[in-house]
Amino acid sequence: MRLFLVALQFLTRLPVRVNGFQPAWLNDCVRHFPLVGALVGAVGAAVLLGASQFWPAWIAAVLALTATIALTGGFHEDGLADTLDALGGVVPRDKALAIMKDSRIGSYGALALGLSLLLRAALLAVLASRPLWAAVAAVLTCHAFARAAAVGVMVSLPYGGDAEHAKAKPLALIVAPRNALIALGWCGLLALALGAWGVPLQRLLLAAVAAGAVALMMRQWLKRRLGGYTGDGLGATEQLAEIAVLLAFTAAI
Fold first, then answer.
1. How far does CA 252 lie from the centroid of its chain?
2. Were 59 and a residue from 31, 55, 103, 242 both cysteine, which residue would form a disulfide, CB within 3.0 to 4.6 Å?
3. Transmembrane region positions (predicted)?
4. What is the pLDDT of residues 109-121, one digit of tens each?
5. What SS3 string covers the chain?
6. Which candidate, 158, 138, 155, places its Cα nearest to that of 243?
7. CB within 8 A of 177, min separation 6: which ones?
C-alpha cells in the first residue's frame, strides 16, 4: 500500500501523503504504475460515459481527455513533447539531452503533442458511441497497459541521461526485473476482470501486443539515440502506447 501511494503521488496530482520517505520506495513503486493507470483510466471512463449522456461524442471525448490530463498534470504529455523535440531531428546525444531539459517547446514537440491529443480525442469519441463494455475496457486498458510499457522500457535499459542531475534520482538507478513482473501481473488481473465482464479476449490480446510493440520500438529508439531511457522517453512511451491500445480497441476487425 505504501508503494502504491508513492506511485500515486508521483504520477498524479492527487493530494496523497506518505509518512516518511526512502529513495528506494520511488524505485520500487514502478511495480504499481499500471494500477495507478487503471485508476486514471477509471476517471476518464466515468467522465466519457457521463458526458456522453448530455453532449455529442466528440465533446464527451475532449472532456474525458481533459480530466485525465488534469489528474496527471500533463506529466506524460510533457515527456512526449520533449522527446520528439530532442530526437525528431538528427543531433548528437549530448545535444538531444540538452534539448530535453529545455522548457521551451519546438516544432517537433508541438506537432507530436497536437497530433497525440487530436488522435486520442478522435478515438475516445468513437468509443463514446459504442457499447458500455467497449468504452470502459478501452480506457482502463490503455492507461494501465501504457504505463506497463514504460516500466518495461525502464527495466530493459540503463538510464541514458545524467543520473546526478536527474529530477527523480531513484528512477535513474537499475529497476529490478521483479517490478516489471508485478506490473505485468496488474495488467493480467485487469485483463482477467475485463474478460470475466465479457470483453472479447482477442481485443485484450491485441491491446497487449500493441502496447508491447510500442515498448520494443521505444526501447530500440532510446537505446540507439541516447544509450538508455530518460524520464521524458518514458512519458513518450506511455503516450504512444495509449494511442496504440485505443487503436487496437477501435480497429474494425
1. 24
2. 55
3. 30-51, 105-127, 133-159, 180-198, 204-222
4. 999 999 999 999 9
5. CHHHHHHHHHHCCCCCCCCCCCHHHHHHHHHHHHHHHHHHHHHHHHHHHHHCCCCCHHHHHHHHHHHHHHHHCCHHHHHHHHHHHHHCCCCCHHHHHHHHHCCCCCHHHHHHHHHHHHHHHHHHHHHHCCCHHHHHHHHHHHHHHHHHHHHHHHHHCCECCCHHHCCCHHHHCCCCHHHHHHHHHHHHHHHHHHHHHCCCHHHHHHHHHHHHHHHHHHHHHHHHHHCCECHHHHHHHHHHHHHHHHHHHHCCC
6. 138
7. 155
CB 141 within 8 A of CB 249: yes
CA distances from 32 to 54, 148, 152, 210 (A): 34, 9, 13, 20
Cα–Cα distance measured from residue 106 to residue 25, given in angstroms and rounded to the nearest whole number: 34
The structural domains of the chain, with segments of one domain joined by +, span 24-250
The Cα 166–Cα 105 span in angstroms is 20
Which triple of cell numbers denotes residue 195?
A: 474478460
State the distance between the two ends of the chain, measured CA to CA, in whole angstroms: 39
